[in-house]
Amino acid sequence: MVEKAYKFRFYPTPEQENLLRRTLGCVRLVYNKALARRTQAWYEQKERVSYKQTSAMLTNWKQQQDLDFLTQVSCVPLQQGLRHLQTAFTNFFSGRAKYPNFKKKRNGGSAEFTKSAFKWINGQIYLAKCAEPLPIRWSRQLPQDCAPSTITVKLDPCGRWSVSLRVNDTRDLKLKPTKKLLGIDLGITSLVATSDGEKVANPKNLSKLHKKLRLAQKSLSRKTKGSNNYQKARLKVARIHAKIKDSRFDYTHKLTTQLIRENQTIVVEEMAVKNLVKNHKLAKAISDANWGELVRQLEYKAEWYGRELIKVDRYFPSSKRWSNCGHIVEKLPLNIREWDCPECGSHHDRDINAAINILRMGTRVADRRKGTPTKKAAGLAVSVCGATVRPSESKSRQAGALKQKAPIA
Asked: Is the distance from CB of 206 to CB of 284 less than 8 angstroms?
C-alpha cells in the first residue's frame, strides 16, 4: 500500500469562494495568534506551550465577541492549523527547520479537512458548511476503490484554487526488475550527466522568462502599496512565477519518471543545496536547476516502483578523480570541463567522469549493505575508492582511530 496525493484544479462558485476565503483567513489568524502566544511565553516566562494548550486557547477565542466569526467556519481546519504549528516547532527543536514564520495573506493559504469535515459521495466532494460539491476538473481518475482520507484546499498567490486528495493506493506499482545501473552527476550547464555518456540539457526555465519577470517587478515597485493597481501588478508577477514553477516541476517529474522506469539502481551524490546556494554567483542557477526536488522525487518514486536509490557521500572527489586510472588532481576549477589525464593520457569529460565515479562508489556502498561483496565490486572499490571518502581524515575519525590504538589500562 502506497500513500499518494492527487492534486486537481477546481473553480468554486461565488458562495463557495466566499466561504473558502473566510476559512483560509480564520486558519491564518488562529495560526498566527498561537505562534505569537508561544513565542511570547518563551521569551517572558521561558515556558513551552503545547498543542493541547493552544487548542484550549482556540476555545476561548471563539467565545470572545470580537472573534465570534471563528464559529462560522468549520472547526477542523482550525485544529489542523494548530497541529501543523506543533509539527513546525517539533522540526525546529529537532534542528530540521528554522523557527516558524507568520502566515501572510498575499501568499494565499491552505486549509486541511479530515474525514469528519467532508463527504465523498459518488465521486464528488462536499465540504463542511457547503451544500454543493466542489466543481473539480478531474484531469485523471483516482485508483479504483480508493476514497480520500484527507483533503487540502489551497489558494496560490496568483489566485488559482486547487484541491489535494490523500489516498491509500493498494495497487502493486512495482516495475519489472532490470539489470541496468546508472550513475548521475547533477550540474548547471547540463542538468544531468549519466555514466552511460549521455547528457540531459538544463531547460533554464527562469532564464526564459527573466526579462518578462524583471519588467513586471519593476512595474510593481512603482505602484502605491494597497492600491488597486498594486494588486493588479502583484498578480501579474505571481502569474509569471507560477508559470516558471509549473514548467520546472513538469520537466523534473518527466525526467525522474523516465530515469526510474529505465534503471534498476540509480546512484546520485548527496548534495547540501542549502549550503551551495550561499554562493551568490551561482545561487540563482542552482535554484533554477531544482536539484533538491529532483533527488526527492527519485527517492520516493524508487520506493513506489521497486527501484533502488543510493546516495554517495558529498565529500567523495568524483570530479577530481580519473575514472580510468584513479589519479586524483589537487585542483580542478569549474571552467575546466574537459582534460587529458597526466597519468594514463586518456581524455575525460568532467561531468561524465564524475557520473562514472559516482556509479562505482555506489556499487561499493550497495555491496556493503548486502554483506557479500563480489569480485567486480571489490575491483571497483580498489580502483576508485581509498580508505576514506573524505579529502582528509576528519577529526572525529582521527580521534576514533587513536582510541582503538591506545592501550587499555
From this structure: yes
Work out the burial of residue 151: count CB atoms within 10 Å of its CB; fewer than 13 is exposed, 13-18 middle, 19 or more buried. buried
* Active-site annotation holds for 185: yes
- The residue from 17, 132, 172, 185 that is catalytic is 185
Q: What is the pTM of this model?
A: 0.82
Of 66, 270, 288, 351, the catalytic one is 351
Ordered alpha helix ranges (H), 46-120: 51-63, 75-93
Element (H, E) at 193: strand 190-194
User: Domain coordinates of the chain in residue numbers?
Assistant: 2-169, 182-384
Choice among 17, 132, 269, 303 that is catalytic: 269
Could you read off the pLDDT of 226-268 as tens digits, one per residue?
899 999 999 999 999 999 999 999 999 999 999 999 999 999 9
C-alpha dihedral sign at 206, 211, 214, 215: negative
166 Cβ neighbours under 8 A, 6+ residues apart: 3, 4, 5, 148, 149, 150, 151, 152
C-alpha cell belonging to residue 152:
487540502
Asked about 269 being catalytic, the answer comes back as yes
Residue 351 designated active-site: yes
